[in-house]
Amino acid sequence: MSSKPDTTPGTQVVAAVRRIGESRLTRLAARAACDELLAELAVATAGHGNWTVRHSSGTAPTLLHNGQLSQACISVAHSAHWIAAGIATNANIGVDIQVHKDKTRSSSITNFLDLPTPNCGGSQLDWRWFFDAWVL
What we know:
By secondary structure, the protein is an alpha+beta fold. The chain has helices at 27-46, 106-112, 128-134, and strands at residues 2-4, 12-19, 51-54, 62-65, 68-69, 73-79, 82-89. It is built from three helices and seven strands; from the N terminus they run ββαβββββαα.
């Protein structure tokens, strides 16, 4: 768990990353694990109580405290067997997690970023430099 201090009075930002097992999580298992991690973060930052995550179709999840909508901003992410969650009070937060794959094709990255495909004499580019720069 990490916490970033902020100069705005009353602002608190907390995030955590957790590995769940050894294999890729199903979407529902990842969601349940993220919900549990959010509830743990809420207890650690705001105190005890009944913390739950509400999911509504087509909208971002929301955090409830004792059945009432919390004013905290939350964010969750999952990739393969990793989950991440964050909570912020009086601030916005966004978390992301990506599992690096050695087989990532340079063409998929250049297409996603709308970049020209470099000419490397027909060989694959080593995009590890991109992930090192993009991901903290």
